[in-house]
UniProtKB/TrEMBL annotation, chain A:
InterPro entries: 3-oxoacyl-ACP_synth-2, Beta-ketoacyl_synthase, Ketoacyl_synth_AS, Ketoacyl_synth_C, Ketoacyl_synth_N, PKS_Beta-ketoAc_synthase_dom, Thiolase-like. It comes from Hymenobacter terrestris. One of its GO terms (molecular function) is 3-oxoacyl-[acyl-carrier-protein] synthase activity. PROSITE patterns: KS3_1 (PS00606), KS3_2 (PS52004). This is 3-oxoacyl-[acyl-carrier-protein] synthase 2. Belongs to the thiolase-like superfamily. Beta-ketoacyl-ACP synthases family. Involved in the type II fatty acid elongation cycle. Catalyzes the elongation of a wide range of acyl-ACP by the addition of two carbons from malonyl-ACP to an acyl acceptor. Can efficiently catalyze the conversion of palmitoleoyl-ACP (cis-hexadec-9-enoyl-ACP) to cis-vaccenoyl-ACP (cis-octadec-11-enoyl-ACP), an essential step in the thermal regulation of fatty acid composition.
From TrEMBL, chain B:
Carrier of the growing fatty acid chain in fatty acid biosynthesis. It is found in: Cytoplasm. This is Acyl carrier protein. It holds the Pfam family PP-binding.
Amino acid sequence: MSLRRVVVTGLGALTPVGKTAPAYWEGLVAGRSGAAPITRFDAGKFKTRFACEVKDYNPDDYFDRKEGRKMDIFTQFGLIAANEAIEDARLNEEGIDKDRVGVIWGSGIGGLTSLQAECIAFANGDGTPRFNPFFIPKMIADSSSGNISIRHKFRGPNFVTTSACASSSDSIISAFNYIRLNMADVIVTGGSEAAITESGVGGFNALKAMSERNDAPEQASRPYDKERDGFVLGEGAASLVLEEYEHAKARGAKIYAELIGGGMSADAYHITAPDPEGNGVVLVMQNALRDAGIKPEDVDYINTHGTSTPLGDGAEVKAIQKVFGEHAYGLNISSTKSMTGHLLGAAGAIEAVACIMAMQHDMVPPTINHFTDDPELDPKLNFTFNKAQKREVNIAMSNTFGFGGHNTSVIFRKISE
Amino acid sequence: MSEIAEKVKAIIIDKLGVEASEVTPEASFTNDLGADSLDTVELIMEFEKEFNVSIPDDQAENIGTVGQAISYLEEHAK
């Protein structure tokens, strides 16, 4: 059986640097940081008191009140980004068979805000269990894909992938596979996360994973800088409409790019620490290149996982050099997390959108906040520091890795006949 | 209208996102005000919280309209 081709026909994004896909791209090219002091709760007692929040978010701008309060904020984010992508792809037009349209979403954590609120209410009560009937449906991670399908009546495959910070790259690959295998014609994929809560910030602080640069939040996410001290927590969502190529052509859809390959692997090393040799990361990029049927030299741009942690950044760079050899010097490498912060389970989706936009505009978004070279990193590599670089981008790769040792890479190519 | 009736109406307007004019005594939560089974459970919980009563499930099943809620609570509220 030959595999069907899969293209991208719609994009949506709700991020700390822009609240639509075009605004997001504009923020990235401008090198804008989304980091600022936390407004969602009083973080005064926490080691980290800043994050990359979606700015001025008010659910009433998007939902009627009854609808909005039945969804956790991570589902609201997801639905907003998915709605944008669905409208962009014109999926609600006559003639689209909604039995053949699925939703495969990614979230690393799910409804943490709802979980926390209900547990606190229970602990403060008299011991009588009085949990809100919407608690479970708001909290479970798959409420995102469920709500998107209900809104748009998409009756194809529907589920959520959870693999920490690789979650939405895994949802993209799952969607890719289901379409390739003729189990659906269109899948709305992507991911959303909203973990800027006391439990999210406190939990990641306990892992010593987050930057504590409270005196300069905007400069805290600095992948590949010698003084990097951890990731900056972000929130938001992004969505991609994936569609079988002939199906897209037949209805005259706008085609952004082709999804040509996906790879997955596990570190099998430690539950939170990356393998310092980057063996799992080497494997995942090799798997993705093989699936795409391309050579390492074909790749122009890698949007790295690059979270700004001392260990992780170096291991990924080492792996890139192992996989790409001499061509590593010909690549543009950048970590857009320097601007957006780390959106955890939504990172793969927003970074896939960044890769596609980079191809659309032949422009590589920068790694901002570079101040001091890290002597451990090869200075001949092009990390796209501080300023976007104009460059023809025909093939772009996006890497994401998650706690648990999950590694995922996806590869997009400019559309060709 | 009694104070209890006012509060009941306010809870229904808030939770079901309906207009005050729709919240008539005869209005059924599910047939007229767009509530599903989860909304109905949540309404009962809100009544319990607001009026400091515990409404057993077999009695909650008989509260299907605005008027039924008001008369139950006027009888049982502390």
